[in-house]
Amino acid sequence: MNRDLRKLWLIIPDQLPSVIRRCPKCKEKTEFQNSGKFRVNANGRLLDVWLIYRCSHCDTSWNMTIIERANPENIDKEEYKGFLSNSPQLAASYGSNRELFIKNKAEIMEIKTGYHILETPTITPINKESCLEIQIKNPSALKLRADVMLAGALEVSRSQIKKWFDAGLVIAGQETLLPGARVFDGMLIQIKKEEVIRQELLDV
Ligand SMILES: [Zn+2]
Predict the structure, then answer these.
(1) Residues near 133 by Cβ (< 8 Å), separated by ≥ 6?
(2) Range of 33's domain?
(3) Same domain, 153 and 101
């Protein structure tokens, strides 16, 4: 793991949200589950991509619009490959994106679930005062406390994490972060370079 590059943490709920909608075949409101599959229509000059949901009773499909009439040249090539190969990460990321559900006027079935973090390096070098920089993606808007998330993901104890917070070593957007602060989408967490933290991270 390269410690000198900023990391991206994508927070993914363990169970992806279902959508409640009226099924034309069942003729009542049913639960539509994320199938993990995309449908891509790349005919002509414009690109459409949908994420497919299926009625849990009769398998009827409903397509949630991901990309609508876009110029293929504006689409990230890696992401496009991911749509074609039904990338589980993409299906999880789009399938937990609240803004997308709202855009599609889809009613989400609320779930109480655990989560996991998918870590990928970025190409952004970290600030020289930081020992760790983490860009958070939380598209499903899961309600998480920063201290609990960091303790779990970095495998350090809650009491150690508390010391980092108390010493003002955890920063978000130029400000010292409070331990109970919520983790939001787009947040950049910086942990200051201090010998004590370096040791604790090396010990794990
Ligand atoms: Zn049905």
Answers:
(1) 6, 7, 124, 126, 127, 188, 189, 190, 191
(2) 19-109
(3) no
